């Protein structure tokens, strides 16, 4: 295997591991400790818990090894970042929501997909802060097409209606200029064409008073 | 082992597994594909990738089993939620940042800790959307002390200065009334006493125009 093929294989293994972590995170949350059906399957869960303990031990061994390697590499955070590290768009980051994130040449940015219980706030609904996280990201992508990444300024998020779990949604962002000529990005999360959450991102502006 | 002890053991195993997933997520992101030192340790990484593949296979087997159990339980999302499911405060949720979240009797809510590369936006800094996620949560906790959980309304987040990775920060939220008598929660994230991000959460208010 040449170096390029090896790099691709490593990246794929990384994403595959992240996918596994993502699925396991979701599934661990969906089996309730106090579910009425739990007594009937307690034995089975006991076995799975034992398996999980084993895996946790293996994770401990592997993380110790990775710790050692990270130490050998020195301050690895100063190195170039691996692809997919971002907590919203990064496919190799097991905490990144399972979304497709894109940016069109016209500066329109977007993200689509649906979210499971890992991202739940009120029962059956996406956590409002997760909607803010996604919109912040999409609006910053739209802004960053204009130059260096946005810093400072403000994010305003308006919650119109609940965003359900397990429903496909579309988050979009585009550039806009305020009445004062200030550059901003505006966008929204829609489900079946209906706006659930909208947001505006102002960079370095005076903006909204806290 | 009686039922209570078993429930505690299951909850601890769940949190321990989540901790393992959290650490692995962090470590997988910190070892860069294209680090100059990588060639020297390629063999070691190959071996770890193989181990990860094996674990991913085991994860697949376990998730299949959990899928089957979830199906047997019926619509498990209608059951009571297990402790620690929340994407900000839930210790059993591997995607929840490793923070201590609390609420005092006077309605003051807070979260403290530090964040690693899993939550990185610009290099070395916490993703602005992650700050918004944490503040949304803390402000909603403060508001929820007044009655049913907050819904609708607006969240405004102002970014004053960058929030570094691996630095302890304190996020706090408290109730406040606007000039119009409207109930809101206000708060901020501080590092060594200096405000990095501030926010206001208005429930159902007319609030800021998008």
A few lines on this structure:
Two copies of one chain form a homodimer. The first copy, chain A, has 210 residues and is α+β, with helices and mostly antiparallel strands.
How would you describe this protein?
Chain A folds into two domains: 3-78; 100-202, Hotdog Thioesterase (Thiol Ester Dehydrase, Chain A). Chain A is an alpha+beta fold. In chain A, strands 1-2-4-5-6-3 form a six-stranded antiparallel sheet, with helices on one face. The first copy, chain A, has three helices and six strands. The first copy, chain A, starts with a helix and ends in an 8-residue tail after the last strand. Mean pLDDT of chain A is 77; it is low at 36-41, 75-82 and 205-210. Strand 3 (153-159) of chain A pairs antiparallel with strand 3 (153-159) of chain B, so a sheet runs across the interface.
Task: Note the topology.
The structure is a homodimer of 210-residue chains.
Chain A: H1 3-30, H2 42-72, E1 100-103, E2 109-113, H3 128-144, E3 153-159, E4 169-177, E5 183-191, E6 194-202
Antiparallel strand pairs in A: 1-2, 2-4, 3-6, 4-5, 5-6
Organism (chains A, B): Williamsia limnetica
Keywords (chains A, B): Coiled coil
Coiled coil (chains A, B): 38-72
